[in-house]
Design goal:
mainly alpha, two-stranded antiparallel sheet, 60% helix, rod-shaped
Amino acid sequence: MIVRFSPDAARREMTPVDNLFFTVYMPEADGMFVKVYLYGLMQCYHSALSDDSIAEMLGITEAEVRCAFVYWQAKGLVRIASEDPLTVEYLLTEQPALTGATAVKYRPFVNALNKLLSPRQLDLREMKAMYDCIELYSLDEATVLELVAYCIEQKGKRVSTNYILAAAQTWNEAGIVTPEQAKDYLESYRAKKHGASEVLMRWNKRRKPTQDEMDLYDKWTKEWGFDEEAILAVCPQLVEVGTPTFAILNDRLERMKDQNCTSARDILEQSDRELDDREFTKLVFARLGKVEVPSRTDIAQIAMFRNEKEISRDAILLAADECQSAERPFGMLKKILIDWSAKGVRTKDEAEQALSERSRTVTPQKKRKKQKNYGSENYEQRVVRMDELENIIVDLNEDL
């Protein structure tokens, strides 16, 4: 059996309000918050009116209703027992959970925080954690709002207050306590996160970058002077790597930095030079009769003779043809090129002349058969000239 006043009768009844509400809490409260509190209090006393939507009756949104009850919860007049559906329990006015001074002091902060987290509403324990960000870690109210926005970006609106408190401690230790410092930090953070994500996307990796990867990206841009375009220009150079990583990219960028190649244009030009050096060394190996792939050291050595010693391509290829039949063709090639570098041989014509002179001065060594040693001692052998041979010819018939 259900016995109650009709809605019309309930509207004619009276709702008792403790005078403490009028004298202590109402003077510093927002007008709409007062309306929400009083209308909710009326519903507590008259259940026939409890089905009326506070938001519809007052002409406000559900989020504003939640915001008002969070405020009164901070004041200690109500307790939010459930968020979905919103269930609010009114408490005695003599039972405040926090001092009125604390709630009033942070009223604009609480309103902004509720808008940021809407439709989620923080309970009393969570609100205490937000106050700790200000009072314990010395962050400005606006800085805490930036911090909460950052944490929501990381974990979503269900982010725990423990995570927020840990982030507040980190910011405090890093000296990020003002809104300007927070904005600078977040701008830098988002820039390196975006840049590191672009690198991962270039490698077709669909995941978020790790903190270590973002720190590397931050070093490349802030300490080494690369911009995003330059970093992405290096990524295609890692195609020969089975699984490219930030560590491998870091090594490649460090080499570029040491060569003063920090712009995308410089990097692309350097990449073209390296490709040309690699292909030319392959051609040299083919002319030498070598079938193996040239190593990085081999490529660097041939490039040194071309670029630093300024020996022409045709001259190097001519020398390679000369060394094809040698026992160690690449070693012989380097000896010839070192000799040419010292003598100033640069062009193909100069190389042809140098090879011609070399053929006249260098006598090919004939292969000697290894003689068996029939005696107990080894005797030194030497070539006897014709005039020496004539002096030692003996006439066997003489003195017979």
